[in-house]
Amino acid sequence: MGKEKCVLAYSGGLDTSALIPYMMEKFGYEMIAALVDVGRMQDLEGLRQRALDAGAVESVVIDAKDEFVRDFAFPALKANALYEEKYPLHSALSRPLISKKMVELAHVHGAKFVAHGCTAKGNDQVRMDVSIRCLDPSITVLGPARDWNMTRPELLDYVAARGINIPLTKKNPYSIDENLWGRAIECGELEDPWRAAPEDAYVFTVSPENAPDEGVELIIGFEAGIPVTLDGKALDPATLVETVDKVGSAHGFGRVDMVENRLVGIKSRETYEVAGSLALIKAHREIEDLALTRELQHFKRMIDQRMTELIYDGLWFSPLADALRAFVDESQKYVTGEVRLKFYKGSCSVLGRRSPNSLYVGKLATYGSGDTFSHESAKGFIQLWGLPVEVWSRKRQGLL
Fold first, then answer.
1. Residue partners of 34: CB distance under 8 A and separation at least 6
2. Which residues, at least 6 apart from 70, have a Cβ–Cβ distance to it below 8 Å?
3. Phi, psi of 15, rounded to the nearest 5 degrees
4. What φ, ψ does residue 79 adopt, rounded to 5°?
5. Among 40, 48, 50, 95, the one annotated catalytic
6. Which has more confidence, 93 or 121?
7. pLDDT tier at 169 (50, 70, 90 boundaries)?
8. How far apart are CA 297 and CA 294, in angstroms?
9. Which of 124, 129, 177, 304 does the annotation list as catalytic?
10. How far, CA to CA in Å, does 53 sit from each of 59, 140, 329?
11. Are 65 and 37 in contact (CB under 8 A)?
12. 114 and 88 Cβ atoms separated by less than 8 Å
């Protein structure tokens, strides 16, 4: 009887590289490493080879960049998804997609087990476990990094003893997760919430103090809630996101430093570089301001917040998430137009917005000549609008 197969969600980093020999030695599995490329990954062939050097019987790279932006990041954008009003969920959005690819690969290879390198303190273990169980409950999900209790220095010694080359030192302990929607930096000096984030933690965003003295403008065009053009030129989703991110980062925009409430019940200091996603969410909200009615816009904020929480909590594939996405999609039918953004020394300002579906009517809004607003109706409207509280007050005071 052959060995059981296990598909590993492989990143090429320290934890998942150590997992390959660990799972082989401890459980005797045949390890199939799968690296899902959701953007910003370098030397993919080198990473693939590293998994083979670590002992994997097969190592594959899956190009999922377009799918990630189209089917995960942009649906979240339509919901203006910012966890605790700060974090654009770049890691949380990639986990359901990675889980989906792991399940598909397990089916191809007849594997009964899927493993990941998520730790016991992180949110990603929840997202991976729940997503895989939702997609195929017959698959057993393994998270060995929750059990081995090795520190980072011990892990470095572990992989070194097995001849696995990892470009990480005990003096550079940052934990990085990045894709097209953003970059997260954790550990090391960042674990002290009082201490300023070291400049070497940032890779994509320049310090605002060192940003160019001249700002730059971009015009982002939306169709049905999706960004489709940049300065009037149609771009594919991945290229558009990358371009906005590069421009914003070059001008010092996109750094987020926050104390975040993790799903597992602890607070954690998190540092992000998210120029592209933050700018696009900001622009998207401006088109909604023009195109949505007051009632829809206000109600949608509640839906957006709940959708954001579901994504963060690993419930992308849940029935509630499906239902809320349907609502969001319906709300976006007329969210079409353009927004002018200006990046300057760490800021992203909105200079203007326009939409063919704009509900902003100049003749109604103006205080100048050409005003068509019915001023004579205002007094009666206010009388009726305030009537319920007036009746309540009169009753309380014995006047009725």
1. 7, 8, 9, 10, 59, 60, 62, 101, 102, 105
2. 237
3. -60, -50
4. -100, 10
5. 95
6. 93
7. low
8. 5
9. 124
10. 10, 26, 45
11. yes
12. no
Would you state the torsion angle of the CA atoms of residues 233, 234, 239, 244, taken in this order, to the nearest 10 degrees? 50
DSSP letters of 202-228?
A: -SSSPPGGGS-SS-EEEEEEEETTEEE
56 has pLDDT over 90: yes
State whether the Cα torsion 385-391-396-399 is positive or negative.
positive
CA 139 to chain centre: 26
Q: Per-residue pLDDT tens for 18-41?
A: 999 999 999 999 999 999 999 999
Q: Is 239 exposed, middle or buried (0-12, 13-18, 19+ CB in 10 A)?
A: middle
Ranges of H-type helices in 162-265:
237-250
Residue 371 designated active-site: no
Point out the catalytic residue in the list 37, 53, 162, 175: 175
pLDDT of residue 147: 84
Residue 377 — very low, low, confident or very high, per pLDDT cuts 50/70/90? Answer: very high
**Residue 72 DSSP one-character state:** I
CB 184 within 8 A of CB 272: yes
Whether 257 sits among the annotated catalytic residues: the reply is no
Go through the domains of the chain in sequence order and give each one's CATH number. 5-74+81-172 (3.40.50.620), 177-354 (3.90.1260.10), 370-396 (no CATH)
Is 322 designated active site? no
User: Are the C-beta atoms of residues 240 and 230 closer than 8 Å to each other?
Assistant: yes
Closest residue by Cα to residue 277 from 243, 308, 250, 322: 243
Whether 95 is catalytic is yes
Which of 265, 61, 60, 87 minimizes the C-alpha distance to 177? 87
Confidence category of residue 171, pLDDT binned at 50, 70, 90: low
Q: Which residues pair with 343 in a beta bridge?
A: 216, 348
